[in-house]
Amino acid sequence: MQRIRLRYTKRGRLRFTSHRDFQRAFERALRRAEVPMAYSAGFTPHPKVSYANAAPTGTGSEAEYLEIALTQARDPEKLRLLLDESLPAGLDVVDAVEARTSGLADRLTASVWELRLDGVDPAEAGRAVAAFNAAAAVEVQRTTKNGLRTFDARPAVVQLETHSESADRPTDQPCAILRLVVRHVTPAVRPDDVLSGLRAVADLAPPVPAAVTRLAQGLLDEETGTVTDPLAPDREAVEAHSTAEPTAAAKAPA
Q: Per the database record, which ranges form the DUF2344 domain (predicted)?
């Protein structure tokens, strides 16, 4: 059995695709691409696909991850191209690597998010961000299946800062861009929780819903506050194996 790890995106209107919608689309793509999938046992076998920490419905993403199990070995890049062609534009498979290490989900400990606040003056957003960062605690509320829950969103936020908008923006309306690095904790702190926190500490209320995009997710480097590529250990293991094979062949007796 071969395991392949994939990174895919949710772009444009496809950001409104739910995780279940993506699962159905991806399983159709597997059939179209004639991928030799391994299946679970039992009366209702399912293709062995493991999804990791999917982004909420309505948010875009450049860094969603999953793993598939195959019954026959395939070249990861060729497989990526076949699957990408079989999915609608916006659900794009952008990276593939053979799984040579364990614990992909354990390496997804943080996310980098971009929050686009149309109609918000960047200076106003900057003051709100400063207030949030200075706060010892930022209590927010979220409705769950068990009712209204209150929790502190501040400890999960590693970094929150403003970013400059591009100079070629086609409109004169103000727009604030926030960059957020957040730990994956329990309960999960999502970008909308941080927006609720900004409203609580600084009365920042965007006139239209924020456009939210996950830029990256992976292992959090506590020293630098950066998020590393979770597929890097697999790539390194594949490279080390390919380097070792010619060396072993050269040492083999004639």
A: 3-191
